[in-house]
Amino acid sequence: MKTTKTALVTGSTGGIGLEVSDILAANGWNLILLNRSKEKAEQQINKLIETFPDQTFFSYTADMMDLSEFGKVVREIGGQHPEILALYNIAGILTDKRLKSTQELEGHFAVNTVAPYLITQGLRKQLSAGASSSQRSVVVNISTSAINSVKKLDVSKLVDPDEIGGLMGAYAKSKLAITIAGEFLHKELLDENILIHSIDPGPTKTSMTGSGDGMPWIISLLRPILFKSPEAQAKKLVSAVDTGVSENASGIFISEGKRKDVPSIVLDKELQSQLKELLDSHIEKFI
After folding, report:
1. DSSP secondary structure string, the chain?
2. Digitized pLDDT (tens) for each residue of the chain, 287 residues in all
3. Integer distance in angstroms from the first to the last C-alpha of the chain?
4. How do 252-255 and 258-260 pair as beta strands?
5. Fewer CB within 10 Å, N or C, the chain?
6. What is the DSSP letter of 102?
7. What does the alpha-carbon distance between residue 9 and residue 49 come to, in Å, rounded to a whole number?
8. Distance between CA 43 and CA 208 in Å, rounded?
9. What is d(CA 129, CA 112) in angstroms, rounded to the nearest whole number?
10. CA distance 257 to 239
11. Widest CA span of the chain, in angstroms?
12. How many other CB atoms sit within 10 Å of the CB of residue 285?
C-alpha cells in the first residue's frame, strides 16, 4: 500500500546512509536521496524502484563543498516536495588533509556543519508542512563520541583552523558544532512542529573509517574488533529516532542507541550565540 511518508537522506549511497535508506524504504517510506555521485545514486535508485515498486524515490546530486550548488539543489527539492516528514543529515567527511570548500571554508566545517544546517533551515517550511496532528517531523544530525575530546571551541577558527588533526581535530569540532546547532535550534523548530535529534551511531565500519585517512593508528588497529557494521548501527539509529518521535522529544542526544546528556560545552549560551551568527552569515545568501 502506498504511503505519504517522505524522508530526505543525504549521503545515502554507502555506509550508514545506505542502510538507513533501505530500512526506511522497507518501512514504507518514500525517499528523496541527495548525494555527490550521480552514478552511485542512479544505481541505488534503480535497485529501490525494483524492490519497492509501489513507493516513489527521487535522486538529487550536489557537492556539499560548494554551498552555492548545494543551496540551489536544496531550493529545487523544496520546490518539488512541499511536505517532508524526516530529514536524515548523514553525509560527512573525515580526513587529516586540509580541504577547502568553494567558499573557502575548511572542509569538515563545510560538509559536517554548514551543509546540514543549510538544508535544515532551507527546508523548514516543507518539514513543518510534513508534520501532522499525530506526528511531528524530525531532523536527524549525525554527531560522534569524539566531541567529548573537545574541551574548548573557538568558533572563529572553524572556518580556517590552525590544524586539521583528523578524528580528534577539525572533524570532532565540526561535529560538536552541528550538535550545538541542534541545541539552539530545537525550541524554535518545536514551534513549527519539527523535532531535532543529534545521534552518535557509534564506531562503524565504513569506507570513511576504513581508509585510515584521519584515523589515529591505534583506533585503526582496533577497528576490526570495536567497530560494528553499518547495518547494525543504522538499525539502532532508526530505532532511536522512532522512539524519540513517539515520545515527542526534541533536542535530545543519542549515543549508540541510548539517550545521554550532551557535553556541558554544548549548553554554553555564548558559544551557541556565536555559532548561530557564524552559520547564519554563511548560509543567508544560499537559501
Report:
1. -----EEEEES-SSHHHHHHHHHHHHTT-EEEEEES-HHHHHHHHHHHHHH-TTS-EEEEE--TT-HHHHHHHHHHHHHH-S--SEEEE------SS--B-TTS-BHHIIIIIIHHHHHHHHTHHHHHHH--SS--EEEEEE--GGGGG-----GGGSSS-S---GGGTHHHHHHHHHHHHHHHHHHHHHTTTEEEEEEE--SB--HHHHS-TT--HHHHHHHHHH-B-HHHHHHHHHHHHHHHHHTT--SEEEETTEEEPPPGGGG-HHHHHHHHHHHHHHHGGG-
2. 334 799 999 999 999 999 999 999 999 999 999 999 999 999 999 999 999 999 999 999 999 999 999 999 999 999 999 999 999 999 999 999 999 999 999 999 999 999 999 999 999 999 999 999 889 999 999 999 999 999 999 999 999 999 998 888 999 999 999 999 999 999 999 999 999 999 998 765 666 554 556 656 455 655 565 666 888 889 989 999 999 999 999 999 998 888 999 999 999 999 999 999 999 999 998 87
3. 35
4. antiparallel
5. N
6. T
7. 16
8. 20
9. 26
10. 8
11. 54
12. 10
User: What are the cell numbers at 187?
Assistant: 525550541
Go through the chain and tell me how many residues it has. Answer: 287
